């Protein structure tokens, strides 16, 4: 099994990895698929044909009932069968089928299906392969066999709706196949209508599989289905009016198996093949091959006649549960009426009355023998109560048909005694396969059941892999512990190996393949055979770290790699050691949160339902939600599927809302704790913080929350109070001694003041109340700490100038001073030799360059240089910084040369513009100007696209104008001026004067274009006036102004207006999000502004490069808590999460949509109750009238009997008529009667005699005793072989000497027994104590692996003083003798008649049950143990308990043995 699982695992991952690679395979064409399907069908599927035409009822009709024209030419005059009479088995042959393919029904919707004509002798395995492999049906989790009335019958509207809704619901939720007769009549038609209604209302969901198994020869219009090469499709006409005695196929079924036996017009041909197919499917494993449960089958019965009764009876004998719908008519109602009665109450007279009531005129055709047989079968049916479920519309216990069907299956599995697995496990496996958590909750996870977590781990794995979130939640509620379930990484690794096809799996497969390829290249070709591509948690950790970001630590510790080639791969070992050292160090502090592991597994597959359940189990729920948002957005960004990316984005937004909800609850409860949560380094999510995750995930809404902004404002102010006015801060920046006067408030002062006020308040309350106040644990923990001390003098000065706010203000002053100096140098003091002011400007710029370099290499978050550089370049303001510095350096280089001196000044002037634009970044901190700058930036992007449109008109008009006015001007500068510059100026009202004659001045232009300062004159005529058409240039100008000035400029205004309105709503949010980067920049910036900042840079350089000291780590943005603080904070966060979830549920329950749904459900419930009460009231009236009529009949019989008795003057001469049970007696009157009140044998009255084809005469319960008259009793005679006991009918007197003491059995003779009369048998119960404490009693049983049965050692005997001779072959002669000696000392547990299936009227089995208890240490025990260990004889010790697999009789014997030894059973 392990090797097979390993092969399967490798195959799966090979497929996953190959799916990740590009493929060159082309899809298979539909025509090729059809040819392959047709070839397979002709090879495996057969039909039947008559090969000998023998005249039947008419000259043109054969005895097979087909006409002469329907036979092949060879059948008309067959030479092989000359002189023979027609025989079905000899003259009907199998040939390849000629009817298969697709079937298309006309009418609305153009419904299509699959069909095939098959022989009655077709193997069920072939049919199953046809359904699953060729027709691509998924194997079912449940098989629903619907049977009943084949004729049109009426269903009440409510029952019809409940049947349709319930049947489709159970098929949809469980993935079931529905099997019916397939024709457009009776119950099959109702099933088709249910499938149709579902298809109309659920067009987007999966198809319901409805398989029709019908008789080929009774199908109307079947000729349309015949084609040797198959029909794709066959157009079938549903002609109900012209079908006559035949039947049309139902157009709502999806698949058809048309069963052919070579004859024509015979109904019921398909029953045997359908039964074999259902039995074969029921033997297949449910789900995977490793499953211990087979596919369950249930029979649903509506209406039906005597044939349906036989179907129910045979199905229940095979262990198939049946669901009877009361109210559907005929045999279904007969069974429903007596289902709750004791068997003794179900008499022939009662069945006769019910048949007459429910069958109507059809009852007149029934014979007395038939009534007796049906009574016996109905008695046997209700005796198997664990297989019988009656759905009653008048009761509320089932609610719907689907629940009744599933409960019937669970009830059957619960009481099954032949299963090798525990009943509850089978039930749970079925419920999981069906995905019906509601059934599991009501039927399996009851209050009486107690579950261990380890017992449900397999169910948890199945529910997770099968994507059944309701079951995951149910299992967590009923004992599954994630700590035990995911204790080792193997379980989690297996879950990742069984991920459904998703983006993360493809990425993971690529990573595994790449890792394996690199390893093979490093090790060499010799290791290729030994290593395999398997997923490990190291691969998962690497991929998740890629999605989260390199700033996080690995979530899982890397697994150590084995060095298979120690001698030849020493270099690989060194390489692996170097590459994994850093990972191991990063993961050394990694902690596992099992809720996080499950949540992460659900998130990477984009599964909302499972992730919701797992998120509730996470310890660090806010970090988990933000991490999920980051992972999902990253996958959406990298994925190529637009729909999948959209779903990921929606789920990311969903978890951002979760994070916001939890944080808001935390902030409402305790602001300080909430702020601590934001900057706490989470050990479960790579040692990162919630704030960092939100920023990386671009969760603007979360960052815009007031609590997050309060934290940022607090960091911005540093040790200063956030409530200080700006002007006070500015004053203290210049006159710092004011900080000692209380002019400026520090945070430490606020904390001291709050603590003082709190203590004063507590003292005041205690003084007033005279009692000590109780405080919460948080307050107590705070008071136990040392009270904060006021800041010292130097600390106040340091806190003032190290505040990011103060640094920012000094940098503003410094930047304005820099711009002022730059302007003075450019306009006043720009000499050939640099002046002192200019040299100061160069030094100042050098300090700015050093600061930019410091920002580039400063990486407190651990992004790495590559990502840090990428983030630096992606920041627009940094691009301006780099551009300004580059321009300055180039301008300075030009300025220092003589030739490029002026060019250098021009570049520096342009650079001054860039530096001024950079000034806007300073004002992004402003709440007023910051959002406006964002709007301006967006408008600039809009203007860029607008300029593209405008340039089209400018160039178009300019080129046309220039070509009309000027002839062959070769001066590029004047060409550009005329074609681009002048049209652009026209937009702003500067109209040219050379486009009309009136304003033309020949002195303002040059004729030949020789004057470089004047434009070239237009083409002139002889009069020295312009020759161009004036009307054309003016019209072109008007059109140009119309489009450029009016249309395009107004379009630009409209675009700006739209952008403003669109961005205005989000600008505040965007500004709050971008505010973080500015705050962090100035938080890490040295206190001194440029140019004095160079001193701070020298200090940093000496500290890090010369002294090699580690950088000072700040706790403002990332704080590592102690273990106790961590636990306390997480517990508090979990409490806030529960509050948030509770408030969310309350909001959902109070929402308008939920109220509408609740109202609709209540209205539906009230409507159902009204309909039920209406039906019950009408039924009650009918029952009362029937009871009144019955009482009148009884009274008339009684009066007639009195009159006859009086006339004859002898009351004993006549027998009083028996008063039968009236029809108003409810089954509930006898519901409390135990089924074990059967007074007579049952096994001895089974219809089919054991191991033979002989059938018994039906003997109902009331006719079993010999004393009861049974005039129609005519048992069959049977003896397995001719012996001295054989008698024929003439010697029936000899049989009368032997009468079964249990009563009639329905068969005479000795049957399969050795002789007439009692046949003695001994059952041996060998027991021992398993331990010295005598707490567990064991017995010896014989197991037959071939038959799959177990039994006590037993056999026939001539005398009960000896053991059966048959035990010698099982136990060996030596052991047999030792046990035979102990017979006299054994205890007889039971002695007498046994209800055996071999019993007849004249031969029966009488059993003596002998218990021999063996001592703990004896030679017999040793001999038995040796035989058990060898295992040749099938002997094994089993614990004496009620879970034994023995039959009912031997189970009862074992119970008595347990009672004798005073042990539990």
Provide a concise account of the structure shown.
This protein is an alpha/beta fold and 1465 residues long. 52% of the residues lie in helices and 9% in strands.
Q: Any overview of this molecule?
A:
By secondary structure, the chain is of the alpha/beta class. It is 52% helix and 9% strand. It has 50 helices and 21 strands. Strands 8-3-4-9-7-6-5-10-11-12 form a ten-stranded mixed beta sheet, sandwiched between helices. The longest helix has 57 residues. The chain is elongated, with a radius of gyration of 47 Å. The two termini are 35 Å apart. The N terminus is likely disordered.
The first-to-last residue Cα distance is 35 Å
Provide a count of the helices.
50
The averaged pLDDT comes out at 81
Give the helix level as a range of percent. Answer: 40-55%
- From the spread of the alpha carbons, the general shape counts as elongated
Which class do the helix and strand fractions yield? alpha/beta
Rounded Rg? 47 Å
Strand content: 5-15%
Question: Uncertain spans, ≥5 residues at pLDDT below 50?
Answer: 1-26, 417-421, 525-531, 561-589, 775-785, 1211-1238, 1282-1291
Helix and strand arrangement:
Layout: H1 2-20, H2 30-44, E1 46-50, H3 73-76, H4 88-91, E2 92-96, E3 100-105, E4 112-119, H5 124-134, E5 142-148, H6 157-174, E6 176-180, H7 186-201, E7 209-215, E8 231-236, E9 255-260, H8 271-282, E10 297-302, H9 306-317, E11 322-325, H10 330-338, H11 348-359, H12 368-383, E12 388-391, H13 401-415, H14 423-434, H15 437-443, H16 457-465, H17 469-477, H18 482-485, H19 489-497, H20 503-523, H21 537-548, H22 570-587, H23 594-604, H24 608-617, H25 621-638, H26 642-669, H27 671-679, H28 690-696, H29 700-703, H30 706-717, H31 726-734, H32 747-769, H33 777-784, H34 793-801, H35 804-827, H36 836-857, H37 865-874, H38 876-895, H39 901-918, H40 929-965, H41 972-987, H42 1030-1084, H43 1093-1106, H44 1123-1149, H45 1152-1208, E13 1276-1279, H46 1292-1295, E14 1307-1311, E15 1317-1329, E16 1337-1344, E17 1349-1351, E18 1354-1356, H47 1367-1371, H48 1373-1381, E19 1387-1394, E20 1403-1413, H49 1419-1430, E21 1435-1439, H50 1448-1460
Parallel strand pairs: 3-8, 4-9, 5-6, 5-10, 6-7, 7-9, 10-11, 11-12, 13-14, 15-20
Antiparallel strand pairs: 1-2, 3-4, 15-16, 15-18, 16-17, 16-21, 19-20
Helix pairs in contact: 1-20, 5-8, 6-7, 6-13, 9-12, 10-11, 13-14, 16-17, 23-24, 23-25, 25-26, 25-28, 26-27, 26-44, 27-30, 30-42, 35-36, 35-39, 35-42, 38-39, 40-41, 40-42
